[in-house]
């Protein structure tokens, strides 16, 4: 991140950038850092990291507009869960976790204030 703060190393470039930064040839060189925030910052630079955080803030704001408290809490808790999980793993790389997050947010946001009287909610 320090070497390429604006543009990053590009998608898929973490492993090669990490190999260049490790001097010991016998050291284990993982393909990702097990931290989504670090991975995003290295790959996409500061703009990418800002975009990821803005995406979470936007989803949280949208969730706060849901009139049904059950769906509001589901949406906000899913954002907190995935944002916390990003500290411990690169969850965007994992199919199941990414799919779960997308699915749960779609369910929660389907019951937005404009759609609160729909039968599905």
Backbone structural class = mainly alpha
Distance between the termini: 43 Å
Main sheet makeup: none
Can you give the mean pLDDT? 85
Any overview of this molecule?
This protein has 121 residues and is an all-alpha fold. The chain is elongated, with a radius of gyration of 18 Å. The N and C termini lie far apart (43 Å).
Q: What is this entry, summarized?
A:
The protein has one domain (14-115).
Features:
121 residues, mainly alpha
Topology record:
Layout (H helix, E strand, L loop, with lengths): L13 H8 L14 H29 L4 H17 L9 H15 L12
Helix pairs in contact: 2-3, 3-4
């Amino acid at each position: 991140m320090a070497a390429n703060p604006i543009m990053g190393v590009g998608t898929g470039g973490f492993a090669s950038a990490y190999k260049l930064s490790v001097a010991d040839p016998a050291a284990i060189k993982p393909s990702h850092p097990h931290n989504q925030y670090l991975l995003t910052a290295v790959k996409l630079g500061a703009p990418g990291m800002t975009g990821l955080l803005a995406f979470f803030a936007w989803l949280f704001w949208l969730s706060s507009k849901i009139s049904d408290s059950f769906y509001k809490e589901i949406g906000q808790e899913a954002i907190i869960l995935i944002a916390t999980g990003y500290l411990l793993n690169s969850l965007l790389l994992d199919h199941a976790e990414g799919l779960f997050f997308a699915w749960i947010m779609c369910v929660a946001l389907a019951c937005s204030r404009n759609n609160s009287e729909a039968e599905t909610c």
